[in-house]
Design goal:
Distance between the termini: 40 Å
Largest sheet: none
Shape: flat
Order of helices and strands: HHHHHHHHHH
Structural class: mainly alpha
Helix content: over 70%
Radius of gyration: 21 Å
Number of strands: 0
Protein backbone atom coordinates (compact mmCIF):
# COMPACT_ATOMS: atom_id res chain seq x y z
CA UNK A 1 0.00 0.00 0.00
CA UNK A 2 2.80 2.40 0.92
CA UNK A 3 4.72 1.68 -2.28
CA UNK A 4 1.55 2.13 -4.35
CA UNK A 5 0.84 5.47 -2.67
CA UNK A 6 4.40 6.71 -3.22
CA UNK A 7 4.06 5.80 -6.90
CA UNK A 8 0.85 7.81 -7.16
CA UNK A 9 2.50 10.85 -5.59
CA UNK A 10 5.36 10.46 -8.06
CA UNK A 11 2.96 10.16 -11.01
CA UNK A 12 0.85 13.12 -9.93
CA UNK A 13 3.78 15.53 -9.58
CA UNK A 14 6.48 14.46 -12.02
CA UNK A 15 4.92 12.84 -15.09
CA UNK A 16 3.82 16.06 -16.78
CA UNK A 17 6.11 17.71 -19.31
CA UNK A 18 6.99 21.39 -19.28
CA UNK A 19 4.15 22.35 -21.63
CA UNK A 20 0.51 23.38 -21.42
CA UNK A 21 -0.63 25.06 -18.22
CA UNK A 22 2.91 24.83 -16.88
CA UNK A 23 3.66 27.61 -19.34
CA UNK A 24 0.89 29.80 -17.94
CA UNK A 25 1.97 32.70 -15.74
CA UNK A 26 2.32 31.83 -12.07
CA UNK A 27 -0.01 34.70 -11.09
CA UNK A 28 -2.76 33.15 -13.24
CA UNK A 29 -2.16 29.80 -11.55
CA UNK A 30 -2.29 31.34 -8.08
CA UNK A 31 -5.47 33.25 -8.97
CA UNK A 32 -7.14 30.04 -10.15
CA UNK A 33 -6.31 28.25 -6.89
CA UNK A 34 -7.52 31.17 -4.76
CA UNK A 35 -10.84 31.27 -6.63
CA UNK A 36 -11.25 27.51 -6.29
CA UNK A 37 -10.71 27.79 -2.54
CA UNK A 38 -13.30 30.60 -2.50
CA UNK A 39 -15.76 28.41 -4.41
CA UNK A 40 -15.24 25.61 -1.89
CA UNK A 41 -16.28 27.99 0.87
CA UNK A 42 -19.51 28.80 -1.00
CA UNK A 43 -20.99 25.30 -1.06
CA UNK A 44 -21.40 21.98 -2.85
CA UNK A 45 -22.55 23.21 -6.27
CA UNK A 46 -19.74 25.71 -6.72
CA UNK A 47 -17.22 23.11 -5.51
CA UNK A 48 -18.39 20.63 -8.15
CA UNK A 49 -18.15 23.28 -10.88
CA UNK A 50 -14.67 24.34 -9.73
CA UNK A 51 -13.48 20.71 -9.69
CA UNK A 52 -14.90 20.20 -13.18
CA UNK A 53 -13.08 23.29 -14.44
CA UNK A 54 -9.80 22.06 -12.96
CA UNK A 55 -10.24 18.65 -14.56
CA UNK A 56 -10.87 20.29 -17.95
CA UNK A 57 -7.80 22.46 -17.53
CA UNK A 58 -5.68 19.46 -16.57
CA UNK A 59 -6.98 17.35 -19.45
CA UNK A 60 -6.41 19.93 -22.18
CA UNK A 61 -3.46 21.63 -20.49
CA UNK A 62 -0.84 18.92 -20.71
CA UNK A 63 -1.61 17.17 -17.41
CA UNK A 64 -3.78 14.39 -18.83
CA UNK A 65 -1.52 11.60 -17.61
CA UNK A 66 -1.49 13.07 -14.09
CA UNK A 67 -5.26 13.41 -13.60
CA UNK A 68 -5.90 9.91 -12.26
CA UNK A 69 -3.02 9.89 -9.72
CA UNK A 70 -3.90 13.46 -8.72
CA UNK A 71 -7.48 12.39 -7.98
CA UNK A 72 -6.26 9.39 -5.99
CA UNK A 73 -3.85 11.45 -3.89
CA UNK A 74 -6.46 14.20 -3.39
CA UNK A 75 -9.06 11.64 -2.30
CA UNK A 76 -6.96 10.54 0.69
CA UNK A 77 -7.46 13.72 2.80
CA UNK A 78 -11.02 14.02 1.44
CA UNK A 79 -11.92 10.52 2.65
CA UNK A 80 -10.21 11.12 5.99
CA UNK A 81 -12.16 14.34 6.56
CA UNK A 82 -15.42 12.67 5.52
CA UNK A 83 -14.93 9.74 7.88
CA UNK A 84 -13.77 11.93 10.77
CA UNK A 85 -16.74 14.27 10.15
CA UNK A 86 -19.12 11.32 10.22
CA UNK A 87 -17.60 10.00 13.46
CA UNK A 88 -17.77 13.44 15.06
CA UNK A 89 -21.40 13.88 14.07
CA UNK A 90 -22.26 10.37 15.25
CA UNK A 91 -20.71 11.01 18.66
CA UNK A 92 -22.23 14.48 19.11
CA UNK A 93 -25.67 14.43 17.44
CA UNK A 94 -25.91 10.67 16.70
CA UNK A 95 -26.90 11.25 13.06
CA UNK A 96 -25.65 12.80 9.86
CA UNK A 97 -27.26 12.96 6.44
CA UNK A 98 -25.61 11.39 3.36
CA UNK A 99 -25.71 14.83 1.72
CA UNK A 100 -23.55 16.26 4.51
CA UNK A 101 -20.98 13.50 3.98
CA UNK A 102 -21.02 14.19 0.24
CA UNK A 103 -20.57 17.89 0.94
CA UNK A 104 -17.51 17.28 3.11
CA UNK A 105 -15.97 14.86 0.62
CA UNK A 106 -16.48 16.98 -2.52
CA UNK A 107 -15.30 20.20 -0.92
CA UNK A 108 -12.24 18.50 0.57
CA UNK A 109 -11.48 16.78 -2.74
CA UNK A 110 -11.78 20.05 -4.66
CA UNK A 111 -9.52 21.88 -2.22
CA UNK A 112 -6.88 19.12 -2.24
CA UNK A 113 -7.01 18.78 -6.03
CA UNK A 114 -6.55 22.56 -6.42
CA UNK A 115 -3.41 22.54 -4.29
CA UNK A 116 -2.04 19.53 -6.14
CA UNK A 117 -2.94 21.12 -9.48
CA UNK A 118 -0.95 24.21 -8.52
CA UNK A 119 2.08 22.18 -7.45
CA UNK A 120 1.95 20.04 -10.59
CA UNK A 121 1.62 23.09 -12.85
CA UNK A 122 4.71 24.72 -11.39
CA UNK A 123 7.90 24.50 -13.40
CA UNK A 124 11.31 24.35 -11.67
CA UNK A 125 12.64 26.70 -14.35
CA UNK A 126 9.89 29.16 -13.53
CA UNK A 127 10.66 29.01 -9.81
CA UNK A 128 14.38 29.42 -10.46
CA UNK A 129 13.71 32.48 -12.58
CA UNK A 130 11.43 34.03 -9.95
CA UNK A 131 14.07 33.47 -7.24
CA UNK A 132 16.70 35.11 -9.44
CA UNK A 133 14.59 38.24 -9.97
CA UNK A 134 13.67 38.47 -6.27
CA UNK A 135 17.32 38.68 -5.23
CA UNK A 136 17.96 35.03 -4.36
CA UNK A 137 20.44 34.57 -7.18
CA UNK A 138 22.75 32.27 -5.24
CA UNK A 139 19.90 29.87 -4.46
CA UNK A 140 18.01 30.10 -7.75
CA UNK A 141 19.47 26.78 -8.89
CA UNK A 142 17.87 25.02 -5.88
CA UNK A 143 14.44 24.34 -7.52
CA UNK A 144 16.15 22.56 -10.42
CA UNK A 145 18.19 20.39 -8.06
CA UNK A 146 15.14 19.68 -5.91
CA UNK A 147 13.11 18.64 -8.95
CA UNK A 148 15.95 16.32 -9.92
CA UNK A 149 16.36 14.79 -6.46
CA UNK A 150 12.72 14.42 -5.34
CA UNK A 151 11.62 11.88 -8.01
CA UNK A 152 14.72 9.80 -7.29
CA UNK A 153 13.89 9.88 -3.58
CA UNK A 154 10.32 8.72 -4.20
CA UNK A 155 11.49 5.92 -6.46
CA UNK A 156 14.02 4.81 -3.82
CA UNK A 157 11.25 4.64 -1.20
CA UNK A 158 8.97 2.64 -3.51
CA UNK A 159 11.73 0.26 -4.61
CA UNK A 160 13.00 -0.33 -1.07
CA UNK A 161 9.48 -1.05 0.16
CA UNK A 162 8.83 -3.48 -2.71
CA UNK A 163 12.09 -5.38 -2.08
CA UNK A 164 11.49 -5.68 1.66
CA UNK A 165 7.90 -6.76 1.08
CA UNK A 166 9.02 -9.55 -1.26
CA UNK A 167 11.60 -10.64 1.33
CA UNK A 168 8.95 -10.57 4.06
CA UNK A 169 10.87 -8.05 6.15
CA UNK A 170 9.40 -5.35 8.37
CA UNK A 171 8.54 -1.95 6.93
CA UNK A 172 11.04 -0.05 9.10
CA UNK A 173 13.87 -1.77 7.23
CA UNK A 174 12.65 -0.36 3.92
CA UNK A 175 12.55 3.11 5.49
CA UNK A 176 16.13 2.72 6.71
CA UNK A 177 17.35 1.48 3.31
CA UNK A 178 15.57 4.21 1.36
CA UNK A 179 16.85 6.88 3.76
CA UNK A 180 20.42 5.68 3.25
CA UNK A 181 19.92 5.73 -0.54
CA UNK A 182 18.44 9.23 -0.40
CA UNK A 183 21.38 10.54 1.64
CA UNK A 184 23.78 8.98 -0.86
CA UNK A 185 21.98 10.57 -3.82
CA UNK A 186 22.02 13.89 -1.98
CA UNK A 187 25.77 13.65 -1.38
CA UNK A 188 26.47 12.82 -5.02
CA UNK A 189 24.24 15.63 -6.23
CA UNK A 190 25.94 18.15 -3.94
CA UNK A 191 29.36 17.01 -5.16
CA UNK A 192 28.40 17.21 -8.83
CA UNK A 193 26.80 20.63 -8.35
CA UNK A 194 29.42 22.12 -6.05
CA UNK A 195 30.37 25.00 -8.36
CA UNK A 196 26.73 25.71 -9.25
CA UNK A 197 25.82 25.97 -5.59
CA UNK A 198 28.87 27.97 -4.51
CA UNK A 199 28.21 30.92 -6.79
CA UNK A 200 25.17 32.79 -8.05
CA UNK A 201 23.86 32.66 -11.60
CA UNK A 202 24.92 35.62 -13.75
CA UNK A 203 21.73 35.40 -15.80
CA UNK A 204 18.27 34.05 -14.98
CA UNK A 205 17.29 30.62 -16.23
CA UNK A 206 15.68 31.01 -19.67
CA UNK A 207 11.92 30.53 -19.51
CA UNK A 208 9.00 31.86 -21.51
CA UNK A 209 5.30 32.00 -20.70
CA UNK A 210 2.61 31.14 -23.24
CA UNK A 211 -0.05 33.82 -23.58
CA UNK A 212 -2.74 31.42 -24.81
CA UNK A 213 -2.48 29.18 -21.74
CA UNK A 214 -2.30 32.17 -19.42
CA UNK A 215 -5.45 33.69 -20.92
CA UNK A 216 -7.21 30.31 -20.85
CA UNK A 217 -6.41 29.91 -17.17
CA UNK A 218 -7.68 33.43 -16.44
CA UNK A 219 -10.88 32.82 -18.42
CA UNK A 220 -11.61 29.57 -16.60
CA UNK A 221 -10.91 31.28 -13.28
CA UNK A 222 -13.47 33.94 -14.14
CA UNK A 223 -15.98 31.19 -14.88
CA UNK A 224 -15.44 29.86 -11.37
CA UNK A 225 -15.84 33.35 -9.93
CA UNK A 226 -19.04 33.93 -11.90
CA UNK A 227 -20.59 30.71 -10.61
CA UNK A 228 -19.83 31.77 -7.06
CA UNK A 229 -21.93 34.91 -7.51
CA UNK A 230 -24.71 33.24 -9.50
CA UNK A 231 -25.27 30.15 -7.35
Amino acid sequence: MLGWLVNKVYESLFLATDTGVRRAHIIAKAMAVVLVVYSVSKGLATSIIALTVLLILAYFGGLKSSIKPMLIVSSIPALWLSISGWLTAYVTVHSISPLALLLIYVRSLTFSFAILFFLTSLSPYELARIMWFTGLKKYSIAPLLLWRLTPVMLRDVADAYSVQRVKGEKIWKSIAISTAAILEHKRFLLEYSYFKLSCELLKPVPYSYKLNYTMTLIAMSLVILATCFIL
